[in-house]
């Protein structure tokens, strides 16, 4: 699904044929599929309205109007039959049921980066709350929205919450002004508290491993610390220096090359497809000899949100690799071997990393850097792929299909679908 101002377009993934076209009341600012892909939600935050469309019954439609309360966020519950709307100023979360048309309210949700978290099985929801100048967590049962647990957290200014994939442990982390991560059980018991240091900017990003055995914590000191699920103590830390000296680390460096054109194929004026490839610079990867010095940017110390520290973290679906980005070294992706707890590969790009995401089915990482190329890494090697489009198509973000056979590449005004051929085993 994609939206063009107030129009919602639903296409077939394989053929890109338009299956449905819906017209909303205003410009769409957020779209989201229900978990079973039968409904799609369109939020118009400026108007305080959510519209829901059915794929099975195109004539059926639903409109939720928050009225004067306003709307700043909207999402599906895991069952795909309830919608959670957060009102302006985070006064409350309204839970709307599509089946019974009933409404429930959750008071005092906290305005933070990640204030709502569902367990992977969809049974429980944790909500960060702020009341009487203190942080609290409420855990709800998603089947009937009954409160299971309510407890206060030992945080100064809670910044985010995230469940482990197995749904047994909730990670809660504090504002970047204080390095503190707290781990709570489903019944609200504090299992452990971890602090790496004090009196300096703290946690910037976290990621659970798919097996729930490891918690990776990225911080402003340019390190990733890996905590284990038994004692919740640090088992190792990964540093991100500007010089790669270890001879066992492979460094792939992106280099530009001019496209070679056979003179027999040249015609004047050149064919449009050939013209676009003629004047677009192509790139490939070379393996650099270590030691390698990476481009390092010294952050501006007197600005808010300095570009430093570990801004992105992601585990591969098989639990074997961890990809990281250190914002001080914006052009590099670091890939760590989790079995050996060592640096495995560094990808050194020509432009700053915008986004990366693992293939959901295998250890294959897709990277984009704001140009018209998508980069793919797997243990077998590395490749740069030019998007065959006319004009300037700058990829800002990407998203894999759940099958791993295709991905959507998004620019500011366009999108394209990249199809990957599956290797025959």
From TrEMBL:
<dbReference type="GO" id="GO:0005815">
    <property type="term" value="C:microtubule organizing center"/>
</dbReference>
<dbReference type="Pfam" id="PF00400">
    <property type="entry name" value="WD40"/>
</dbReference>
<dbReference type="GO" id="GO:1990811">
    <property type="term" value="C:MWP complex"/>
</dbReference>
<dbReference type="InterPro" id="IPR015943">
    <property type="entry name" value="WD40/YVTN_repeat-like_dom_sf"/>
</dbReference>
<protein>
    <submittedName>
        <fullName>WRP73 protein</fullName>
    </submittedName>
</protein>
<dbReference type="InterPro" id="IPR001680">
    <property type="entry name" value="WD40_rpt"/>
</dbReference>
<dbReference type="InterPro" id="IPR052778">
    <property type="entry name" value="Centrosome-WD_assoc"/>
</dbReference>
């Amino acid at each position: 699904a994609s939206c063009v101002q107030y129009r919602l377009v639903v296409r077939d993934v394989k053929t890109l044929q338009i299956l449905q076209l819906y017209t909303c009341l205003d410009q769409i600012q957020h779209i989201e599929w229900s978990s079973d892909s039968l409904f799609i939600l369109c939020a118009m935050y400026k108007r305080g309205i959510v519209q829901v469309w059915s794929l099975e019954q195109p004539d059926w439609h639903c409109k939720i109007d928050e009225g004067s309360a306003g709307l700043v966020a909207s999402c599906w519950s895991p069952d795909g039959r309830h919608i959670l709307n957060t009102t302006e100023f985070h006064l409350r979360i309204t839970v709307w049921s599509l089946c019974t048309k009933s409404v429930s309210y959750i008071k005092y949700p906290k305005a933070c980066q990640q204030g709502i978290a569902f367990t992977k099985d969809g049974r429980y929801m944790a909500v960060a709350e702020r009341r009487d100048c203190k942080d609290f967590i409420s855990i709800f049962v998603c089947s009937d929205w009954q409160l299971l647990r309510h407890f206060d957290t030992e945080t100064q200014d809670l910044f985010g919450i995230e469940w482990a994939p197995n749904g047994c442990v909730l990670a809660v982390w504090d504002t970047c002004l204080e390095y503190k991560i707290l781990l709570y059980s489903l019944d609200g018991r504090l299992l452990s508290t971890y602090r790496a240091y004090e009196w300096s900017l703290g946690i910037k990003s976290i990621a659970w491993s798919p097996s729930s055995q490891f918690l990776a914590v990225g911080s402003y000191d340019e390190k990733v610390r890996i905590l284990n699920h038994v004692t919740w103590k640090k088992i190792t830390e990964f540093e991100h220096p500007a010089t790669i000296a270890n001879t066992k680390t492979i460094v792939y460096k992106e280099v530009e090359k001019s496209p070679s054109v056979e003179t027999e194929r040249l015609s004047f004026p050149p064919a449009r497809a050939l013209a676009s490839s003629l004047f677009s610079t192509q790139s490939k990867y070379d393996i650099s000899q270590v030691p390698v010095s990476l481009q390092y940017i010294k952050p501006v110390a007197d600005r808010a949100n300095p570009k430093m520290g570990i801004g992105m973290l992601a585990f591969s679906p098989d639990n074997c690799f961890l990809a990281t980005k250190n914002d001080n070294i914006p052009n590099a992706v670091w890939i760590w071997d989790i079995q050996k707890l060592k640096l495995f590969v560094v990808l050194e790009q020509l432009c700053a990393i915008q986004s990366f995401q693992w293939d959901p089915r295998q250890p294959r990482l897709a990277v984009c850097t704001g140009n018209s190329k998508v980069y793919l890494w797997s243990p077998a090697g590395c490749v740069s792929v030019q998007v065959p489009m006319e004009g300037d198509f700058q990829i800002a973000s990407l998203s894999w299909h759940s099958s791993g056979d295709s991905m959507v590449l998004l620019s500011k005004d366009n999108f394209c679908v990249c199809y990957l051929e599956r290797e025959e085993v």
